[in-house]
Fold this protein.
Amino acid sequence: MSPSPITFSILARDPSTRARAGELVTPHGTIPTPAFVGVATLGTLKGVPYALLLQGVPPALIVNTYHLYLRPGAEVVRRAGGIHRFMGWQGSVLSDSGGFQVFSLGAAFGKNLTKVAREDIDAARNERAPAVYDPEVLSQHGRLAIIDDEGVSFTSHLDGSFHRFTPERAIEIQHAIGADIIFAFDECTAATASYAYQREALARTHAWAERSLRAHRRNLEASRMQALFGIVQGGRHEALRRESARTLGAMPFDGYGIGGSYVKEDLDTAVGWVCEELPEDKPRHLLGIGEPEDLLRGIEQGVDLFDCVQPTRLGRTGVVYTREGKLNLWNERFREDFNPVDSHCACPVCASHTRAYLAHLFRAREMAAASYASLHNLFFLQALVAEKREAILRNGRA
């Protein structure tokens, strides 16, 4: 077995929580942890031009395997020299496995999984599933997704074309994309799924984790350059979460993702259970969670990396993070508010512009509005996590 292409070291631990501060070194740089990773779904942070992004450089970006597979295609990215060259990014890049999009972003058919309530899934099962193509697929992710023990078959949300992912295929696609850290193919379940279904899905996730490892190791060149993380599942059930963390923790992954869907209290329970069981010397990434309060609670449970689309998604709608809480710049009171977006923020937007100016840009439908608000939100979360890291280093123990 070749040595891991990444190294992770813990520099300090908080004496009163599970929080730790460390450094994760990848082939493209060092990520100070805990860290917020920017979501660059299609090879870009939506709404944030590259020149602006460099003013608030995130420590790493995560791209979306499902979307890049559908367009422009993994082979296009490979022929461009890999994702770093393709997007012109010099820092570290992660890629997800594609499982979340395949399972969770569409109406439910067969055993399709989603974050909607379980009763909605059951109702969908009684509907007649479409053939391979349905016009509604144009606006849906994975309108048809059928899971079996070998993998998942699904239709594209772009044109309804039929596709199939297996653990081996998901790893092959991620090898072509060329991210520094890739993830094993897993079955993402809804928080509302029954215990029986969570147990069934967990068995598949563990089997797929082993297959992902074997597929990764067979490609000697990729395994020397790309780290592979396993993904812990188990829903909101303590026994399943702990079992999953122990099972995956015994496998020779380079690090671990914590998957699934959550409600707020799960950050103190489900995430905490997992962090108690996972190997202490390997990094942990909480997938898809990133509201300010969620970051702080996750850090206290021992999470090292986070990613979330919220900073750019909210920014595009005129909602910005501040120490006062979220502000909606469409509110009438911001028309003549000449304060910075957040007086405590050191981002380039707050240094140059006021709430009134951004409120004006949104009302004028200027594209710069979404860019400025998204950049501020991204910078805000990075600063929040950096402050927490400094506090752990200052008050923690080695």
